[in-house]
Amino acid sequence: MSDSKKHTPSSFDDHLRDLVRGILMPGIVLSAMVLMAFAYTASQRRARPHLHRVSFRLLVYALVSNFILSVTLVPMENLMKGPPSSAGRTFAAFASNGSLLFSACMYFCMALNLQLVLIHGVNGLIMEKYYVIGSFLLVGVCTISPLAAGQFKGLYNGLCDDLKFRWLVPTQSFWILLMAASELVCFVILMSYMLRHRMSVKRTRSDISAEMTALQYAAYSAAPILQFRGIILRIVLYPFLSCVLNFSGSTLDLYLAKHLENTELNFRLNVLDDCIFNAHPFLYALLAATDPVSTAQQSNTFDDKI
């Protein structure tokens, strides 16, 4: 099998750095543009009520985290050439791991908030502070612990791959995989709930009595899960994308940390892993750039909870 053969350097290896930068730089530019656009929109009094949503604020926190991640990744390659004990190398590993994990937390909280509000009737405005505080605590524990133990110094050192694996799982991969799986569960539950509710309304429409007026039926069918289905389906796209990227990226990280052979397969998987990792800022910013903020046109006490 050709993939099990030892990797032979080719001209593609020389352009790998350009490929990574070609994916990363557009993400930095687009993330900055989206954040500036959101800031300008928030400064307008007429547009400000349309942004008063828990999910939107969580999205902004995640985009800021992704922007920090992308900016940190720019000098990463040069820093990794330095000594393992260098302060720059330690800070780059600390910032990239922390921002990646915090971003994953925010997208998970978006999915969780939708389920809690729409299905269980929880007040999202009250839960928002717990989302943020809980995410900061988790990120703090998972980044400060390896930093205090000095593990970030050799995180990207090929001589420390076994030790890296032991720290990678409990401080990053486990949590990101758990959030990705939880986002998928929330997505399936929410879509099933919306489908069941939609079918229930259709059955009611078919069984509607002559005495029920159109106004009465409209009031019955205008449930939040249907009234805001456009906004809900749009918000769901963020945790769904997060689930796909984080699950694939973390799985590749764990596989490559355990399989250190310089084979053609491992080389290709490593390139794919780099592309997925560096594509995070661009893909999230692209999705946010196409977010129709104006869809939240109703001034509704339920709307600001999602």
Structural descriptors:
single chain; 306 residues; mainly alpha; Rhopdopsin 7-helix transmembrane proteins; 11 helices
What does this structure look like?
Keywords: Membrane, Transmembrane, Transmembrane helix. The chain crosses the membrane at residues 20-42, 54-74, 94-118, 130-152, 172-195. This is G protein-coupled receptor. It comes from Mycena metata. By secondary structure, the chain is an all-alpha fold. The protein has one domain (13-204, 214-305): Up-down Bundle (Rhopdopsin 7-helix transmembrane proteins). α2 packs antiparallel against α3 (54-73), α5 runs antiparallel to α6 (124-148) and α10 (229-258) runs antiparallel to α11 (264-289). The chain has helices at residues 11-14, 16-43, 54-73, 76-80, 87-118, 124-148, 161-206, 214-221, 224-227, 229-258, 264-289.
Overall radius of gyration: 23 Å
Sheet bearing the most strands, described? Answer: none
End-to-end distance: 51 Å
Strand content: under 5%
Count of strand segments? 0
- The average pLDDT score comes to 81
Which residues sit in consecutive blocks of at least 5 with pLDDT less than 50?
294-299
State the secondary-structure class: mainly alpha
Shape: globular
Transmembrane segments: 20-42, 54-74, 94-118, 130-152, 172-195
Keywords: Membrane, Transmembrane, Transmembrane helix
Protein name: G protein-coupled receptor
